Amino acid sequence: MINPWITIVICYRDREYIRALCCLQSLLNQTDKRFEIIISDYGSKQIDISPIITEFPELKVQVIRTETDEVWSRSIALNIGLKAAKTKFVMTTDIDMLFDPRFIEAANKRVRRDDNKMLLHKQIYDTHPQKKLEDILEGLKSNNFWTNLWDYVPNSTRFSGGGACQVMLRKHVYTIGGFDEEMRIWGGEECDLMERWKQKGWGIQDHNETKFIHMYHRPTKSISRTKWETDQIKKNTHIYNATCKRVRPIVRNDGPWAYQDFYQ
Predict the structure, then answer these.
(1) What is the pLDDT of residue 262?
(2) Bridge partners of residue 62, in order along the sequence
(3) Do the beta carbons of residue 183 and residue 192 sit within 8 Å?
(4) What is the pLDDT of residue 222?
(5) Tell me, what's the pLDDT at 27?
(6) Does residue 21 lie within any of the structural domains?
(7) 79 within domain boundaries
(8) Please, which of 51, 78, 99, 250 could form a disulfide with 103 given CB 3.0 to 4.6 Å?
(9) What is the pLDDT of residue 183?
C-alpha cells in the first residue's frame, strides 16, 4: 500500500469474529484502498481478534490489544487507536459497520474541499434482522450484497446524532484531546466531540452520498444493565449537555496530545 491518506480506527471488545470479517471485507472492496486500519481491542476476554490480520493480507491492519478489567469505554478504545495513527486524516467507527465500495473514495474528495470540516455520515441502514452474518459475508465476497442491497437491507433509514463514523483532520483531533474518557459504556461521546470541534470554530459536513450499513444486532436498550451502567449513561448525557453550555473545559483527558507530522 502506497501513502495511505487516512487511518480507520475501529473500536472492539468481544464482538463476533464473523462480524469483524464482514466489516473488513467491505473495506477490502473499496475503490480507494489508500488507508490503514487500527483495531483497538479494549479488554476482550472471549475472542482473540488478532488472527484477522492474516485474513486480509491485502489490507494494512494493526490490532492494538489493551488488557483491562475496566468497564467498556468506546471513548478510551477509540483514543488508543487515534494516538497510534500517523496519517493526516483519521476515521473513527465501529466493528459492526459496512461501507459502500465508494465510501473512502467519496470521503477523500469531500474532506479535501475543506479539511477544517468534520465529515459525518448520519444516514444509516440496518441489515434485516433475519439475515445471518454468514450470508452477509458471502454477499460481500461475491459483490452480491451491493448489487442486490435491498435483499439484505430494508429500504428504510435511521439517523444517528454522531453518525457512528467521523472523518477528521488528525491534528484537530489531537488539539481537542480526542473523545472524553469520562464517558464510559457508549452514548454521547461522538456528539460531545463534535460539539467541542465546533467550539473551536471548525465546521461539520454530511457524507451521505454513499451507503452506510449497520449490521443488525439486538437493541442494547433491551439488554439488562446494572444500576452503575444506567447511571453512567445518564452521566454521559450530563457531560454532553455541559459541553453545549460551555461550562467545562474544551480540552479533556490528557489533551491536547503531542502532534507530529508523520505522513509524506
Answers:
(1) 82
(2) 38
(3) yes
(4) 44
(5) 98
(6) yes
(7) yes
(8) 99
(9) 83
Domains in the chain, number: 1
Q: 54-64: b or e for each residue (b if 16 or more CB lie within 10 Å)?
A: eeeeebbbebb
* Full residue range of the structural domain in which residue 114 is found: 6-244
Q: Are 239 and 188 contacting, i.e. CB atoms less than 8 angstroms apart?
A: yes
Whole-angstrom Cα Rg for the chain:
18
* CATH number of residue 137's parent domain: 3.90.550.10
Distance CA 180, CA 170 (A): 16
Query: pTM of the full predicted structure?
Result: 0.92
In terms of Cα–Cα distance, which of 97, 99, 67, 98 is closest to 80? Answer: 67
Please determine, for residue 238, whether its predicted confidence score (pLDDT) is greater than 90: no
Where helices occur in the chain by DSSP H, the ranges are 17-28, 52-55, 74-84, 103-111, 133-142, 144-147, 149-152, 170-175, 189-199, 227-244
Angle at which helices 189-199 and 74-84 pack, to 10 degrees? Answer: 50
Three cell numbers written together for 193:
466531540
Task: Find the Cα–Cα–Cα–Cα dihedral 196, 197, 200, 201, rounded to 10°.
Answer: -130
Rounded distance between C-alpha atoms, residue 72 and residue 43, angstroms: 8
Report CA-CA distances (Å) from 175 to 69, 157, 221, 255: 29, 34, 34, 7
Neighbour count for residue 115 (Cβ, 10 Å)? 16
For residue 194, what is the enclosing H or E element? helix 189-199
pLDDT digits (tens, 9 = 90+) for 1-49: 578 999 999 999 999 999 999 999 999 999 999 999 999 999 999 999 9
Q: End-to-end CA distance of the chain, in Å? A: 14
Helix (H) or strand (E) run with residue 119 in it = strand 118-120
Considering the domain boundaries, does residue 137 fall inside one? yes
The three grid cell numbers given for residue 77, joined into one nine-digit string: 478504545
